[in-house]
Amino acid sequence: MMVLVQNKDGTLLSSCHPARARILLKKGMAKVVATYPFTIKLTYRVKNPVFLPTRVILDDGKTCGLGVVQENRTHNLVLCKAEMKTRGEEISDNLKDRRTCRAQRRNRRNKKRGREDEIKIRYRKKKQEYPASIRADVEAKINAVKRLMKMYPVTEIVLEPVKLDIVKVINPTVKGKDYQRGLSYGIEADSRNRKRRLAILKRDGYRCLYCGSPVTGENAHVHHFVQRKHGGSKRYDIQGTLCEKCHTSVITGELALAFDLEKYPSVRAAGRAMHGRYLLERELKKLGVPVAIRYGYETKELRERFGLPKSHGDDAVVLGCNPEKKLVDRSTVYKIKLHARHGGRKLFDANPGVAAYRGQADRQPHVDRSHMAVDDHDHETNRRNRSYRRHVRNKYYKKLKAEGKFNYELLPGKTRLNEIFTVNRAILLTESGPVLVKNQRIRKWRYPYPWPERGRVIERYDLVKTQKGDIGIVTSLMSDCTVRVDFVRKREGYKTNFSFYKPEMLTIIQKGSSQTWVIQ
C-alpha cells in the first residue's frame, strides 16, 4: 500500500513507499494530514516536480472497476483498485413505483390527466437527453474519477466502454437477416401488443407448452415466465403459450413451471450502460485530461499475460499497463458504496404535519367511521364521504385555533416544517454535550447558532471508527443524540452488524457524501 503525498502548497505529488514516508515523518520533513487513506504533506516546497505517467482506468458496467497505474522505467506500479455497483436499476424501479402510485391515486380521485398526443417519456418532456437512472450512473462514475484525481497526479484517463451484442446475448443462434427481421417479421396486426402475441403463438406452434393441447388466437394465454416486478420485460424469450387451464393453475399456484433464469440473462444493465456510454465519454473529456478508449477484447489477453484473476478491479488495472513491462501490485483496494441523496425521504409522503393533524381529526369520538371509508368503485359515495371528511377536519382545526394550539406553519405551501417531523440532520459536539441539529431548512428559525463546520458534526453516511477500531458508516441519528453505525465488516461473536454509540465515542475518518470509499 503506497502513501499519498502532497506538496507544501497542497498540490499532488507522486505516491511514496511507507518506509520513505516514515523517514520523512521522523525527520520532520512531512506531517500527517489524513489517515484514511494515509496522506502526508511535506513541510518544504518541491520545485518543478517530475510526474511519471499515471493513468486512471474505468471499466464500465453495472459493477464498475476502477484502477490507478503508474508507469515507471522498469515496471507498472498499481496504486489503487476499486469496485462500485451503480444504482441505475434501483432508481429506474423507484421511478416506476412512483409512476404507478401516482396513476392509482389519480384513478381514485377520478381525475383525467394528460392528452392523447402528449409525450409520455418524462425526461424528453423536460428537454433532457438521458433519463434519470442513466444520468445518475454517469454522475457516480465521474465523481469516482474526480476523487481519484484528487488523490493521485493523473496524466491520462483510460475508458473501456460497454459494447455488447444484446441480440446475440438473448438469442445466441441469430445470424444474417434475422438481426433485422426478428420474431414478428411478416405478421400483420392492428397494434404492437397484438403483433407480439401472434409472433409468440406462431413460434410455439399454437400449442400449450405444458400439456401440448392446441390453442387458437382467441383462447390462448401468453404467460410471462419472469414477472415484471421480478425484472421481466416484453422479451419474446421469457414469454410462452399456455392454455386457459394451465395458465389458471400457474396463477393459483397449483402448477409450478421450471424456468432456468441463467439461460435467459437480464440485459437491463447492459442496455443502460450502452445507452449512457457516449454521455460518459463526453463528461470524462471535460475533466481536462486526455481520454483513451480501450476495448474488452484486450482485457482477457492482458490479464492472462500478467497472471491476474478475473475481477472488475484487475480488468481495469491491466488496461492501463504497458504490456512490455512487468506488473508490481502495491494497491490500496477500495469498495465504493453509493447512497441515495435523500435517503430518509419517502417518494409518496404528504406533508407529515398535515397528515398528523388529519389523523387526529379522524379519530375524534363523534366521527362516523362508516362515512370515512373510501371505495374506488363507488364514486358517488366517495363524493359524499369526501365532503364529510372535509367537514370533520375543518371542525377540528377550528377547535385547535380557538385553543391557540394550531400550528400555521404546517399548512400546505409553507417552506417550514414542524421540527418534530423533520429528519435529524447532524449531531454537534459542544462543551456542554452533544446537540441534535434538525433539518437545515429550518435551522435559521429553530437553531439559534450558525451552521458549524462539517468537520465538527456527525452526519449521515460519515465513515467513523469506534474505540475498538471497528469501521462503520453512520446510517441514522437518533433523537437522544445516539448514532447508529453499520459496520463494513461482519464482527465475530455479534448477532447484528450494527450498533448504537454516543457521538463522543466515535472518530470521523471520512466525511459523508453520495459515495463512501471503504478500504478492504
Explained architecture:
By secondary structure, the protein is of the alpha+beta class. The protein folds into six domains: 40 residues; 130 residues, Nucleotidyltransferase, domain 5, CATH 3.30.420; 37 residues, no CATH class; 87 residues, His-Me finger endonuclease fold; 59 residues, no CATH class; 97 residues, SH3 type barrels, CATH 2.30.30. 31% of the residues lie in helices and 22% in strands. It contains 15 helices and 21 strands. The strands form five sheets. It has a seven-stranded mixed beta sheet. Strands 19-18-17-16-20 form a five-stranded antiparallel beta sheet, with no helix packed on it. A four-stranded mixed beta sheet has the order 2-1-4-3, covered by helices on one side. Helix 2 packs antiparallel against helix 4 and helix 13 packs across helix 14. GO terms for molecular function: endonuclease activity; nucleic acid binding; zinc ion binding. This is C2H2-type domain-containing protein. InterPro entries: HNH, HNH_nuc, RNA-guided_IscB-like, RRXRR_dom, Znf_C2H2_type.
